[in-house]
Amino acid sequence: MKKVFVVLLMCLFVFSGCTTFTLNSQEKRYTYDELDDNQKKIVDGVFEEYSKWTSVHDSGKTILCSNVTFFYEDGKLIFATYYNCEPSSPAMLSKIFEVGEDGTLSSHTYDVIDVNNRKRVAMAKAASGLPFSKDDSTEKKKNTLSDAYYKAIQNK
Questions:
Q1: Would the CA dihedral through 92, 128, 99, 140 be positive or negative?
Q2: pLDDT of residue 15
Q3: Over 80: is that where the pLDDT of 4 sits?
Q4: Rounded (10°) CA dihedral 131, 121, 42, 66
Q5: Which residue from 127, 134, 108 is spatially nearest to 51, judged by alpha carbons?
Q6: What is the pLDDT of residue 90?
Q7: Crossing angle between the packed helical segments 138-154 and 37-48, to the nearest 10 degrees
Q8: Radius of gyration over alpha carbons of the chain, in Å?
């Protein structure tokens, strides 16, 4: 009887753990239409500057943006992109921009002390950002940017 109880208890833990994982992994995705006008202005501005962040060049190859994210650093809105260089290079490439109130992008630099710490954190955030593809429709691209931006606002 004890063995049956232990087995049932273990099954209950496994089932509840799987259910929790499934519920957490189905996180709400925010779309462009859910943003207010000021938020749309930022997403539109970042999207309009697509040519600044669409790709990087490494070893003579063009590598397209594969992940995007927004986050706040010292009260500034940051937009970071990640470029998956594998298998051509083990390098971790990203671009990091400060976002203006109208969505314009300007380079974001780190001083010598911060390069080894804060820049690596920013690059890791970019690598774990939302998937982004040049082949997606304009609507899907804007929805991806909107979702990333909305998540940054929530974590501000």
A1: positive
A2: 44
A3: no
A4: -20
A5: 134
A6: 65
A7: 120
A8: 20
Report pTM: 0.79
CA distance 60 to 100: 32
pLDDT digits over 7-38, tens only? 444 444 444 444 444 444 467 899 999 999 99
Residue type, 92: M
Which two three-digit tokens encode residue 32?
Answer: 């462009």
DSSP string, the chain: -HHHHHHHHHHHHHHHHHHHHHHHHS-----GGGS-HHHHHHHHHHHHTHHHHSEEEETTEEEEEEEEEEEEETTEEEEEEEEE-TTT---EEEEEEEE-TTS-EEE----HHHIIIIIHHHHHHHHTSEE--TTS-HHHHHHHHHHHHHHHHHT-
pLDDT at 55: 94
Question: What whole-number distance in Å separates Cα of residue 13 and Cα of residue 32?
Answer: 39
Cβ-proximal residues to 134 (8 Å cutoff; 6+ apart), any chain:
54, 64, 65
Beta bridge partners of 64: 55
Query: pLDDT confidence of 58, banded at 50, 70, 90?
Result: confident
Burial per residue of 55-92, b for 16 or more beta-carbon CB atoms within 10 angstroms, e otherwise: bbeeeeeebebbbbbbbebeeebbbbbbbebeeeeeee
